[in-house]
Amino acid sequence: MATGHHVAGWRHPDAHADAGRSLSHYAALARRAEAAGFDALFLADGVAIRGMDDATLPHTARAATFEPLTLLSALAAVTQRIGLVATASTTYNEPYHVARKFASLDHLSGGRAGWNVVTSWSDAEARNFSLDRHPEHADRYARAEEFVDVVTGLWDSWEDDAFLYDKANGVHFDASKLHRLDHHGRHFQVRGPLNIARPPQGHPVIVQAGSSEAGQELAARTAEVIFTAQQSLEGAQAFYRGLKGRLARFGRTPDQLKILPGVFPVVGRSAAEAEEKFEALQDLILPSVGLALLSQHLGGIDLSGYPLDGPLPDNLQEPNGAKSRFQLVTGLAREEGLTIRQLCRRVATARGHWSIHGTPAQIVDQLQAWFEAEAADGFNVMPPWLPGGLDDFIELVLPELRRRGLFREQYTGTTLREHLGLVRPGHLRRERARSA
Amino acid sequence: MATGHHVAGWRHPDAHADAGRSLSHYAALARRAEAAGFDALFLADGVAIRGMDDATLPHTARAATFEPLTLLSALAAVTQRIGLVATASTTYNEPYHVARKFASLDHLSGGRAGWNVVTSWSDAEARNFSLDRHPEHADRYARAEEFVDVVTGLWDSWEDDAFLYDKANGVHFDASKLHRLDHHGRHFQVRGPLNIARPPQGHPVIVQAGSSEAGQELAARTAEVIFTAQQSLEGAQAFYRGLKGRLARFGRTPDQLKILPGVFPVVGRSAAEAEEKFEALQDLILPSVGLALLSQHLGGIDLSGYPLDGPLPDNLQEPNGAKSRFQLVTGLAREEGLTIRQLCRRVATARGHWSIHGTPAQIVDQLQAWFEAEAADGFNVMPPWLPGGLDDFIELVLPELRRRGLFREQYTGTTLREHLGLVRPGHLRRERARSA
């Protein structure tokens, strides 16, 4: 969210409550994160106002913000190094548009674009696109598999050295280096070629966050970065081991997929200060908002009939979309024995992500433990409110990470792939021709 | 085109042949045009590589360039005043996406966005979107009519003063000022609301360029700016009179629609210098490119069997797309008795637009004549090559226009609507409620 990841973060005294319509807010954030050496700035997205009932929505800052590709393009013009990652849905888009927009962002930014592939999760989205209901999970993932292949195929329409710019002979490009895709699949017929040169990164970095069986299979085959919500070291290790273990089947090595759990950090100069900051944020949650958010995590189930200080009912039905969130929350309820009220406060903080508070050393101890125990290749840092929550992380946590040699002093590359240690993909046809 | 409007403009010694992948090229152009006080920068667009056979395409600079919404968003971040207008097709998009992206660009730019509504014209586009053929003209315009209504309806999802940002009470926005669209039409079912605040301009400026009967009806009902290709003062006057005459039927006044013919200017310090510049450009046209371009203007008709120095065959069949270009070219052939070779050179210069060359005074005489004779409210200036062709216009023509009081000394407003003298639309529901 524009205002930070805590549901009440926009109410923090130093938060920019109007962040969703302020380019200067985002430009300052991006420059700040870039000066600190972050890999990337990531924008989640949906193509509807989602997941809140009409009574609760006005108490949150999540109803309205910039469209992410346009916003990241504007940020590309005012930054030089930081990666720019946006979500785009395979359920409510056409692959030609998605391929083209991310290729364009990659050119505008000199090789800093990333695409977070999602299949979306709400009927609200369906109803903005002439459908009554969100398509079924299996159908969405079948479409997503084909969609990603079409997009990467379109990115290879041009070979890297296709453009000659030969004014004297009037030859703009080498015709032998332009390729039609001629894709004929179950969901899409796409001839191509794409009307933009091959992206500077070859392919913009592909990111995913689905944790279902189908989501993990798609990720193992196509993704280069995974965002995931994990609550415990053991859970994160199991997820990490499981997903990395799937790669060999697709001819890939473990270093080709970076797993980045979300972390929601509240940092203080002392443990007490961190705790105070956290409780101050929690006290800003209106009870109705907490309950609505919990209901959303469970796929829209109405919890108003259950006592707040009692347990979750145990006969809940798994929803059609966002299965992994449902499992995460019901798992939390079961394992930690949390009441509905406690679950409300838990999901309100970080929407199911790992929430840690403490001194810089306490926070870095935990991040380091996850990193060294093969639970994470890095982290998706989710500041509770903005810009102050990011400033805290930069000013307090980064120096401690650097002292331990766990965070770069400065960028050594210029592209998002280089920041992440990901190899630039060769051109598919060129490689096939070479091996033939 | 990124390299200029003359088909061989990219071969000009000072042209940026790599403009289609250079943000710095576009940023410099936009800043230059802004310093000069232009209303807007306009990007035409298609969602395919279109209108050229495989043998001819490599000799042009039109196959690959930025996606326009991402490019204009980047330019929004490095300019302050100039309008930013992009084409988006109603045939190969969904209205929710289009409404959202132009709203986002309008916010990013502080009220400088414009949407050029087109229905597209090529089978090449259809084949990138799982269709075999481009839909029929009447179907495209029926969809376009509904599409524009959905987009403008979505822009009014939020009232202008909906956001309260009341941190103390936890009220982000006033729920009574958020409206669903609940559109149920023949082509689209769109519930809304849009997940971005009402654009700073109320609605981004709506531009159109179709000249067919259906195109003019759509324009008369919904457009605020018209781009048009006109070859003669009389033709331009007839078009101007006809289109302005349609407005009253839709309850609109003539000043609510600005008609801007395209003009392709080649300017010299003397008439001889202008002629030399023009001929030098014409000599850069490869004959095969000229013939392919003429064929494209006629809807893809194969002209290779006809003698170059003979007339156009007179039994040509009007194409499904781009009817107005077909009529323009066949009209030219008939009225001026041009051969195929002459037509090739004519369409190669300005793609059917008005081409004028001469001294600054000669050029301004003609622009002034059109303006004063109600043939134009202004012009869409199409430099032959870039950046030099724009520089020539700014350095040589603008001073003469200003001397005669026909061009602003500096901006007096900050939004594209203000530059164009267009009123900001009120909020539809708010206005209905007021009059009820």
TrEMBL record, chains A, B:
Xref: Gene3D superfamilies: Luciferase-like domain
Ranges annotated as spanning the membrane: none
Annotated InterPro entries: Diverse_substr_monoxygenases (IPR051260), Luciferase-like_dom (IPR011251), Luciferase-like_sf (IPR036661), NTA_MOA (IPR016215)
Domain of life: Bacteria
Pfam families hit by this protein: Bac_luciferase
Stretches assigned to the Luciferase-like domain: 10-373
EC numbers, comma separated: 1.14.14.10
Gene Ontology molecular functions: nitrilotriacetate monooxygenase activity
EC class (word): oxidoreductase
Keyword Oxidoreductase: yes
Keyword Oxidoreductase: yes
The entry's keywords: Flavoprotein, FMN, Monooxygenase, Oxidoreductase
PANTHER family listed in its UniProt record: ALKANESULFONATE MONOOXYGENASE-RELATED, C2H2 FINGER DOMAIN TRANSCRIPTION FACTOR (EUROFUNG)-RELATED
Record-stated family: Belongs to the NtaA/SnaA/DszA monooxygenase family.
Protein name: Nitrilotriacetate monooxygenase component A
